[in-house]
Design a protein that fits this description.
Helix content is 65%, strand content 3%. It has helices spanning 2-24, 40-53, 63-67, 74-87, 93-103, 110-123, and strands at residues 57-58, 61-62. It folds into 2 domains: 1-34, no CATH class; 40-123, no CATH class. Strands 1-2 form a two-stranded antiparallel ribbon. Helix 2 (40-53) packs across helix 4 (74-87). The chain starts with a helix and ends with a helix.
């Protein structure tokens, strides 16, 4: 009788171990990971803007500070989102310039905008 009890206790323990393994990622393929989605085009474009235009200013910040989040704030995030939309042609250059000028009214943004547009022309 004792031998029979040992077998019935072993099965739930093995099942529990297999279940725990799938939750922690162990189990060699029992659960498929979510795919990592990257867009090297947009990221590459932002990198190119930093390389070619990093010292130009938008508002009181350089493009390097804005894109690389050196001055982390909601404006940096919005700027990066807006610039990515420009890269994907989701907004026009004039709408982009208008949004940037509304977001960063202080300073001369034109040199930075011109450099971004020139970089965009080279990227497409």
């Amino acid at each position: 009788m004792l031998k029979n009890q040992k077998v019935t206790m072993t099965i739930p323990i093995i099942a529990l171990m297999l279940f725990a393994g799938t939750l922690t990622g162990c189990g060699a393929g029992l659960m498929a990971p979510d795919p990592v989605i990257e867009n090297h085009g947009a990221e590459g474009f932002l990198d190119q803007v930093v390389k070619e235009c990093g010292s130009k200013t938008i508002g009181e910040l350089t493009l390097n500070e804005l894109i690389n989040g050196i001055q982390v704030n909601s404006q940096s995030s919005f700027f990066n989102d807006l610039t990515t939309k420009l890269y994907f042609s989701k907004i026009s250059q004039s709408d982009y310039a208008s949004s940037v000028n509304d977001l960063f009214p202080a300073g001369n943004n034109q040199a930075g905008l011109d450099c971004i547009f020139a970089t965009l022309g080279n990227a497409t």
